[in-house]
């Protein structure tokens, strides 16, 4: 089969012929129709991710059609259109993932290929209103945003939300989910065009985080926020304490801008703030997110679609931070 293979740190993604995966008990072979890129793929290519191994087929997100089933799996699955939950072996605790938890695409080969094998418990019927490209865009970013907003920050209708760095996959999903939930949403971005696109999706307003006075601009326009969703950390994080309303929740995943700086703990305890770390999502989170999408016919925002052969070009586009929404590969 054709697959996109990463053979080492800082190496390009190469199209190669590799064997079709062999199925073990409880596994299903999916003929991949579309896959989507995540920032995770870029960090792995750069060698800045735990548990590196090479060669590896990247790709956590995917949608396709069931080609074959392994032992102890009903053949009624064959021919079904499915979307893949990339959270493998989350465990029984909703609050956190177990030690054996892993994400599809490292250490196990992922979706940037004509076929991928996954546990049967990680497959769900593709939402009928979504194309394969749209369905492939949904899983990792969608569930990460869902867990951040609802399972961790307990977002309520009518609350005021700030989403930082809008345009990336998870941040764009957070915008969509928060608007749908009836929140008043503001955003930050590095470009006016992304802020305008965010407004088209329902954001009230936004500011450039490259402006020195971005925090005071937000405070003037919004007053304060009940929930702040961040995936960058870095020096800007300290401003979130001032931007939070009493009882506010700051929920974060990722750390593209560095670590959390020194914080004034008095602001945290006096305002009764909660700092909430999060990542990916449980089976419950994924099923709730998928139910939200199905019930309300919601669709992911897609920035661009590329043929599988252009995976390395697509990954470079992901890194130049020009995207708004998900970058997808058509297999």
Let me know the largest β-sheet. Answer: 7 strands, mixed
pLDDT average, as an integer?
96
Q: In total, how many beta strands?
A: 18
Can you identify the CATH class of the largest domain? Alpha Beta
CATH topology label of the largest domain: Quinone Oxidoreductase, Chain A, domain 1
Intertermini distance: 11 Å
The helix content is 25-40%
Low-pLDDT runs of 5+ residues are none
- H/I helix tally: 10
Taking all Cα atoms into account, the compactness measure Rg is 20 Å
SS-derived structural category: alpha/beta
Q: Tell me the strand percentage band.
A: 25-35%
Number of domains: 2
- Characterize the quaternary organization of these chains: single chain
- Helix/strand order: EEEHEEEEEEEHHEHEHEHEHEHEHEHE
Q: Shape, please?
A: globular
CATH superfamily assignment of the largest domain? Medium-chain alcohol dehydrogenases, catalytic domain
CATH architecture field of the largest domain: Alpha-Beta Complex
Q: Can you walk me through this structure?
A:
By secondary structure, the protein is of the alpha/beta class. The protein has two domains: 2-138 and 300-330, Quinone Oxidoreductase, Chain A, domain 1 (Alpha-Beta Complex); 143-277, Medium-chain alcohol dehydrogenases, catalytic domain (Quinone Oxidoreductase, Chain A, domain 1). The chain is 27% helix and 27% strand. The protein is built from ten helices and 18 strands. The strands form four sheets. Strands 3, 5, 6, 9, 10, 17 and 18 form a seven-stranded mixed sheet that branches. Helix 3 (139-152) crosses helix 9. It is globular, with a radius of gyration of 20 Å. The mean pLDDT is 96.
């Amino acid at each position: 089969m054709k697959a996109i293979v990463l053979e080492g740190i800082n190496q390009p993604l190469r199209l190669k012929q590799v064997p079709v995966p062999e199925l073990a008990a409880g596994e299903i072979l999916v003929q991949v129709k579309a896959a989507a890129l995540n920032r995770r793929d870029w960090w792995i290519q750069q060698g800045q991710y735990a548990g590196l191994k090479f060669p590896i087929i990247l790709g956590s997100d995917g949608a396709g059609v069931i080609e074959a089933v392994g032992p102890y799996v009903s053949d009624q699955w064959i021919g079904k259109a499915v979307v893949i939950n990339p959270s493998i072996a989350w465990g029984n605790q909703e609050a956190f993932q177990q030690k054996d938890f892993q994400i599809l695409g490292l250490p196990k080969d992922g979706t940037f290929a004509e076929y991928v094998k996954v546990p049967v418990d990680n497959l769900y019927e593709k939402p009928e209103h979504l194309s394969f490209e749209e369905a492939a865009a949904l899983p990792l970013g969608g569930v990460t945003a869902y867990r951040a907003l609802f399972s961790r920050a307990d977002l309520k209708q009518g609350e005021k939300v700030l989403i930082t760095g809008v345009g990336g996959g998870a941040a764009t999903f957070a915008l969509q989910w928060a608007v749908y939930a009836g929140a008043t949403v503001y955003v930050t971005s590095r470009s006016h065009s992304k802020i305008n696109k965010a407004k088209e999706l329902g954001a009230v307003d936004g500011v450039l985080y490259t402006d020195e006075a971005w925090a005071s601009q937000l405070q003037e326009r919004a007053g304060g926020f009940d929930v702040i969703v961040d995936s960058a950390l870095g020096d800007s994080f300290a401003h979130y304490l001032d931007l939070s309303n009493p009882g506010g929740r700051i929920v974060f995943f990722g750390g593209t801008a560095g670590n959390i700086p020194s914080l004034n703990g008095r602001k945290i305890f006096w305002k009764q703030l909660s700092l909430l770390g999060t990542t990916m999502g449980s089976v419950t989170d994924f099923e709730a997110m998928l139910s939200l999408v199905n019930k309300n016919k919601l669709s992911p925002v897609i920035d661009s679609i590329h043929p599988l052969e252009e995976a390395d070009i697509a990954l470079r586009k992901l890194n130049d931070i020009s995207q708004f929404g998900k970058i997808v590969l058509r297999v």
